[in-house]
Amino acid sequence: MPIAVNLYQTRDAKTEAGEFLRSVQKQKQQYQGIWIVGADGKVLAGHQEHSEEKSKWTAEVMATIDAALAKAGPLTARNPEPKDVLPYWGKNVQKDGSVTLAIATRYMHQGRPINNGAIDAVTLTAKEWQEFAPPEPAKGATWRIPTKIGVEFRRCLSTVSDQSFMPKADDVTAVDFTGTVTRVKDGIASIGYAGRISSLHTHPFNKNYVTTASARLRGIGTYDMEKKEMVSLLWIFEGANRDVKATAENPLAAVVEWQRDARFETAAKR
Amino acid sequence: MKMLFRTLAMPALLALCVTASAGDPLAYEARALKDMAKLIWQDEALLRWRDIPWYIDAAEGLKAAREEKRPVLLWVTGDDPLGRC
Q1: Of the candidates A126, A196, B15, B69, which lies 20 to 30 Å from A223 by C-alpha distance?
Q2: Cβ separation of B74 and A36 shorter than 8 Å?
């Protein structure tokens, strides 16, 4: 049974999940990673350390699973229905009106991505999401997205999800995003977004490693004037980061996407 | 007369064709951004793990494991495993 949990939220929690995690950590010392645990609560196998070669990672995980299966005894295959484990990631609106924008960031070289990068998200409350919509859906209307919201897109300045490398909110040195209604047609306002975000981040454990990053925003959105709601959003960030001591920059790009009504599809169908 | 017509009409027709093919600049920008998005998004093969029917409510997952008498594959990371990768 596949279960995915957040270490920070679970490790000290006085919940069944917290107790379970502490129990498996006692049996097999790992900070994070995978534990495969039998129905009796005994750890069958675990995996955290991985080789330097990424090409070996899949095989390492499969080896861990095989080791656990060998101890677990005969099992029949499950055939669960595919389910959308993140039904609001980049799509739809939650009951409280909040939305989650889906993000991917990659390093780029000569216009092509060169690493796996990171996937991420920004969740906005209904009130915050309203700031992306035109206050007045008339062609030419322009507005600024509040700094407090713009700062959350600092994620788009790092292709590494480790928080030691990700700029924090206080690291954002400048952010300025604006929206402009570019067209009104058939009850839909088309919106153009533009702006820039910059940051300066010091690694928490290596004070000599300071990264500067900056990216330009180009984006589009659509707004239903009758229903008074956003329909779609697509932002592209293009910029670079570098160690402040280095001269060479690392070009990067990020996409931020959201669609109001989107159906779940498995990867095979996408 | 025919010659004169051709001399005047052809450039005008050409200008019309060029204008028509310039198209809608907003549509052009949207296309360019969508193409860029496709480029940036990770390859689907890298995201196949999202098709696994993960339980993100651990209590629910543990209950299902007990009911089906199956081992648990517990994936733990700092921050949300399915949210950032």
Answers
A1: A196
A2: yes
- Chain B residues touching residue A2 (CB < 8 angstroms): 52-55, 61, 72-73, 75
Alpha helix ranges (H) inside chain A: 7-10, 16-27, 57-72, 126-130, 147-150
* Angstrom distance (rounded) from CA A40 to CA A227: 53
Three-state secondary structure call for residue B28: helix
In sequence order, which residues have a C-beta less than 8 Å from that of residue A215 and are 6 or more positions away? A156, A157, A196, A197, A198, A237, A238, A239, A240, A252, A253, A254
CB atoms within 10 A of CB A65: 18
* Residue numbers of A between 224 and 263 with CB closer than 8 Å to B: 234, 236, 253-255, 257
**B69 contacts in chain A (CB < 8 Å):** 39
pTM of the model: 0.83
Whether residue B85 has pLDDT greater than 50: no
Contact flag A4-B55 (C-beta cutoff 8 Å): yes
Q: How far apart are alpha carbons B85 and B80 in whole angstroms? A: 9
Of B62, B80, B83, the CB nearest to A20: B62
How far is the C-alpha of A198 from the C-alpha of A176, rounded, in Å? 9
Is the Cβ pair B26, A267 closer than 8 Å?
Answer: no
A148-185 tens-digit pLDDT:
999 999 999 999 878 888 999 999 999 999 999 999 99
User: What's residue B2's pLDDT?
Assistant: 60
